Amino acid sequence: MKIFYLLPFLFSACALEAQTDSLPKIPFDGMDLSWINGQNRQTHFPLVFKEKGSDNGIISGVAYLDSYFNYNFAHPVDNTQTISSSIGRSNEFAVNLASIGIESNYKNVIGRIWLQYGQMGSVVQDLDGTVNRGRNSSVSNLKNFREGAAGYHFNKWYGINLEMGIFMSYIGLESYLLQENWNYQRSIVCEFTPFYFTGARAQIFPNKKYRTEIWLLNGWQSYNSWSKGIGIGSSNYYRPNENLQLVANFYLGRDTRNSNKIRFHHDNSVVLRYFRNKPGTGISQAAISINSHYGFQNGDGISPRDEFMAGISIANRLWFHQNKLACTLRTDVITNPSGYLAFTPSPVTPNAFTEVFDKNPRQKVNLFQTTLTFDVLPNDHITFRLEFVTRQSNVPY
């Protein structure tokens, strides 16, 4: 399957997280992190409203728009693009994600409301079946919140934040916001992992270069829970300098309906900028991104050898002309025996995929993807993107 993306238009006017007068230290202060895969590349923040007579922002605004045109060489009969949470339609113009919001850290009280609308919300959130377990919840009540959280900031070390609400996921290197990624279509390993969580988190910054998070959450990409227990997670970021980022994330929970299976998942990544010469008219910087994932389910007669997911994504990005142009080549591969994390297959052959596993429950889903992306980056806030994707699968997918 080959996919061709024509001029996705992405606009972002986010704001730097507000700081309080009492915050003595700022983690990762002075580091240029705008080049990192999955990070906001802004260096200017026009929507920060400052307290009178102070340099500290008290309210930050967020505005984001992502639209695209996708052409699929497989010619889906009803223009439905499957096996992707990045895009959902073929041979059509689409508003993928529109989002506005505000956030504040006034007097150490954390508040955040980011609203969203668009196609990607339906692709991701409408598959959440946990809202049908019991009453008093539905996707329609929640999916227009990209994030909604409240909490408190403690001035300990380089900061401790305690928050509760709906958050974008910490698992997977690449961002839910496609402009922040080096490619428009996410890598397969990140597509198979969550994009949001409902729960509570503690963010701890023991020093300038390290952040760790502890999560208590309802489940794997779910608003509610399939079990009576809660999931736990951990996220760890280490940036020894502005040219290197090391990440290790973990998740453990019960996420299978009517089952006692336990799910474990781990992802880690290395993002390295190995060349920088921004004033140059040729290559201005270059970086490599390596992201690997491993997870399994265990219980109810199933062993980790029966149901696991393993994959890796490797991307190399070159920036040109003082970072106004960029080109990224990425290759990723994944194997998922039993397909427990696999996307819903094509609606044209709705039974083909399930029949494969009816005959052989341990059948592996092996997927391969290569992506070539060219970006035009006039400034911090806008991206014009042209992308070509080709995929292969060992099952009717």
Task: Give a structural overview.
- It is built from 4 helices and 17 strands.
- It has helices at 119-125, 139-142, 188-191, 352-359, and strands at 2-12, 48-50, 57-72, 92-104, 109-117, 145-154, 160-168, 196-207, 210-217, 231-241, 244-253, 262-276, 283-298, 308-320, 325-335, 366-379, 382-393.
- Strands 1-3-4-5-6-7-8-9-10-11-12-13-14-15-16-17 form a 16-stranded antiparallel barrel.
- The chain starts with a strand and ends with a strand.
- The model is unreliable at 14-23 and 346-351 (pLDDT under 50).
Main β-sheet: number of strands, strand sense, barrel status?
Answer: 16 strands, antiparallel, barrel
Classify the helix fraction into a percent range. under 10%
Through-space gap between termini: 10 Å
What series of H and E elements makes up the topology?
A: EEEEEHHEEHEEEEEEEEHEE
Mean pLDDT: 84
Low confidence ranges: 14-23, 346-351
Read across the widest sheet, the strand sequence of neighbours is 1-3-4-5-6-7-8-9-10-11-12-13-14-15-16-17
The number of helices is 4
Beta percentage is over 45%
Gyration radius from CA atoms, angstroms: 21 Å
Instruction: Count the E strands.
Output: 17
- Shape category: globular
Strand-pairing-aware structural class: mainly beta
Protein traits:
mainly beta, 6% helix, 16-stranded antiparallel barrel, 397 residues
